[in-house]
Specification:
alpha/beta, Rossmann fold, 10 helices, 8 strands, globular
């Protein structure tokens, strides 16, 4: 099925956020994560458009959005809030499913907690996990700094394209430390949400670095979800045999799971 894609921009907080819309069916808003763009999620977006009216966008400093004076969790949350505030103008058929990937999942949880009744349900992909211990310890900083410095080189090569990320290695590192702090308090946000929640999770989210630390991060990841489900047993979880790149490496499987979740709750 071929569908028309419409594009428009939202201006807020000194940044320009590009939004794309395409497909037909139940409305769905897809929020990317840190260092992820609409272009990176292209396969998943195309698959979801078969059954959904999909709106997606680039966070500040990502993809085709403009650079910003500040990059923080609250600033990125402001981008999502601005996109959602524009939805009434589009006259959607019903409140949307809000799907968040990685950092986008954390943003989705905070949005749904702060704006009750605004979304029909949440689908959280490999994020918003109340892990019992922070992922980034002082001992881990050299490893992660080297990883994000390498990523920054890739980002420099993508500059000027729909895959560009304008954040530097230190900004990405600082944001990951901030996200650890946000996740230490996220259980309280889950308690404020009044809509169904489903999670799609990578079975082996950690990759790279020492084998010992990767195994610890995977255990920490699983323990966080166990902790969440004990506190909020209504949350449905689906595990995928993949790492944290699952939205790209396993897009057909992720799309199938989202369609099955959304179909059950129509």
């Amino acid at each position: 099925m071929t569908t028309t894609t419409t594009r428009f921009e939202i201006h807020h907080d000194g940044v320009t956020i590009p939004v794309s819309r395409g497909g037909r069916g139940r409305p769905l808003v897809l929020c990317p994560g840190l260092s992820s763009t609409q272009a990176d999620l292209h396969e998943l977006i195309v698959l979801l458009r078969r059954d959904h009216d999909v709106l997606t966008f680039d966070l500040r400093g990502h993809g085709l959005s403009s650079a910003a004076a500040r990059y923080s969790f609250d600033a990125f949350l402001g981008d999502l809030v601005a996109v959602m505030a524009d939805l009434p103008r589009l006259e959607l058929l019903s409140p949307p499913v809000l799907v968040g990937c990685s950092l986008g999942a954390d943003l989705a949880v905070h949005y749904a907690a702060e704006y009750p009744g605004s979304v029909a349900e949440l689908v959280l992909i490999d994020g918003a996990n109340p892990v019992p211990e922070p992922f980034l310890t002082e001992a881990d900083l050299p490893e992660f700094r080297a990883m994000w410095q390498a990523l920054a080189l890739w980002n420099a090569a993508a500059e000027g394209t729909a895959r560009q990320v304008l954040l530097g290695a230190q900004q990405i590192l600082d944001l990951n430390i901030e996200v650890d702090a946000v996740r230490s308090r996220i259980l309280d946000r889950y308690r404020e949400i009044d809509c169904p929640i489903s999670m799609i999770l990578s079975d082996s989210m950690a990759s790279g670095g020492s084998e010992e630390r990767a195994e610890w991060r995977d255990r920490n990841w699983h323990m966080g979800i166990e902790r969440l489900v004990r506190a909020r047993p209504h949350i449905a979880t689906t595990w995928v045999d993949a790492d944290h790149r699952l939205v790209s490496t396993h897009a057909p499987e992720v799309a199938r799971i989202i369609r099955s979740i959304s179909g059950r709750l129509v």
